[in-house]
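Q: Focus on the shape:
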Amino acid sequence: MTKHTALHARHRELGASFTDFGGWDMPLKYGSELAEHRAVREAAGLFDLSHMGEVWVSGPDAAAFLNTALVGNLAVVRVGKAKYSLICDERGGIIDDLIVYRIAGGEETDEAPGAESRYLVVPNAGNAPVVAAALAERAVGFDVEIVDASAETSLIAVQGPAAEGILHGLVADGAHGDASRTAVTELPYYAWAAITVPGAGAGGQAEDAIDILLARTGYTGEDGFELFLPNDRAAEVWDRLLEIGGPAGLIPCGLAARDSLRLEAGMPLYGNELSLDTDPFQAGLGPVVSLKKSEQFIGRAALEAVKEAGPSRVLVGLKGLARRAGRGGYPVHAQAADGSGREIGRITSGQPSPTLGYPVALAYVEPAFSEIGTRVSVDLRGKPEPFEVVALPFYRRTT
């Protein structure tokens, strides 16, 4: 059965077109996906990301457990910070990519012996149940508690150059306005803060206040914030953000714009660039893997072997040198004047770039063809089209 987020009725009221994504009925676009894309690049876009998962990991062994369950070193993450990581299987295949927030520390003191660590693990939509189950299975023998709060949690994102100002407007009123406004301003990239915003009650009374976990990570290449909050408060925060952000150019945005934005930013998508048949070194995510930590994390032996031998294929960025765009699944060939070059890879994501004005694509190719400046051709339904390997990301914001 298709799932609905707590904001589904709002999306219908706004005239959204819907699509199935990871078992969720999600807004694809509200009008023009190009206009939504440009709004995020030039002003701000509002996204419902409540299909993402939220899994809490807590207990005295939380850091050691996550260092065994995930490929990164989560023990070194300070409270208030976040880290991008991966959960892999024994073969080194990627089960999912994740963001992990450290919510509470585990520092022991005379006053608090055996102090508890607490983390929030955020997996992708369709993978959330799989990740929660894998974490629970891997927790055997550790003093930790795994709680999947995905069904009770909403996630709203504000992305774009105007995002910070819009968040200031959200927290401006109410008893906690000054502290929350300071938290927004001072929040660095890949970090989180607890803020309180006034609810819809008269005068923003304290009893109506909404507690939000505010993160600053993003998946668009722009500045932006993510708001984790209870389902029953999501609609009033969504409405308030649209009201505050409207004069600044904020509009609701769907998954189509989110996909074109993340592609320009060179960010991988699970199911396209990442899968169980892909290892981190192939995907250019080798730095995410910590082989210096002492824990024997799941997939470590396989990933050590891949690092030693080198990956069999490499994810690259491709810039179209003509007008036609390559799409996911299109073959990539070694360039030959007559178009007869052999196949050396496949595109995983591709489309015309609204910001840059030319086609862009991500593709897995043989390592020998991964150098910047290498010319290749893409088979566009029988017709070869010239592309060039370029550095990622395709787009990088200047401020």
